[in-house]
Fold:
Amino acid sequence: MTYVDLHRQVSLDIETEIQTAIAGLVPASGTGTNKSAAKSAVTKLLRHQKLRHPLSVLPMLVHGIETGNPAPAVPLAALHVLWWTSACYLDDLADAHEPQAAPQTAPHPAPTPAPPPPSTIDRNEALLASVLSGTVLPLRIVRSLPVPASVHGLLTAEIATGWAVGIEGQLTDIATDPSRATPQSVITGYRGKSGGPYSMITAMAAILAGADASRVGHWREFGYVFGILWQIFNDQEDILSGRNEDLLNGTATYLLTCALEDSPDRAARERVLALCTAARNSGAARAELARILLSPAVLHRYRTDLEAFRADAHRILGVLGGDDRYLAVLRHLVDHAAAMLLRPAPDRQSVPEPVPARTALVQPA
Structure:
């Protein structure tokens, strides 16, 4: 079984949990109607901001490893979808992307019936809906869990920490000047903006499963490492898809810092930085920079470091142990996230211009 197989089995349960949370979003009106602008906005945001990968099963895998039963973590899977829907939309705004219809693709690689076309949603409506999706609904889901008040408190604290760490990483990413970025500084940012949210959900699942503080700490660290892997996975997908949003935004990605560090001399480094600046407005500069980033030497460094993060994730899982059925699925997911997707580019290879589609920041759902 893979994580996609598990998602096939539980996707309807997760969707039901999401719809239940939305249905209770605001008190029933005195008019006898169920119409609600807030409910409508959140529903449209969920359709607009489709998440490409079914990572909503991650808390279920953690719970399954801890207890042998993933089902009690379905509410956390719903929470995961809602949180990332909000975070991905806010990430689009931070990157100055106008709201666009998300690509209507099934979670890779599982074929599913095509969802209905996304409802039109403007920036203001989506922004307000993202507040509800990322904060109010997750808190309500936590409050609805049949657990002691002390557990409610621990889970709520994880949501607050996940937001704080994730935003810290995102702000660091926005403010980072590529000329001052290093591989370590970028990984620190990845650990926050992507690792923080995954750390939040893995720790929450462990807490819900009744794990002791030591195991919760290990799961929290696993989430950080997994978030780094998944951000690198997203970086690779951005290039392979032809969107090249990182090049358009001048983002200091881990791949870019590898290229800067491996530059043979100062002139070569300055050339990379100049192309990084020009790539915001020049297709030719983007193509030339992509050729440098996909050089064999840079990709060798990239692959070596990627393998190190993969090994660290597997090491943590080895320390944790647990139910072998779900542990095997999570190990498979780690290997999927750590796949080396990029290949060396032929000299002067042109890079496709970006298409108007947005990959969700990692999760994805």
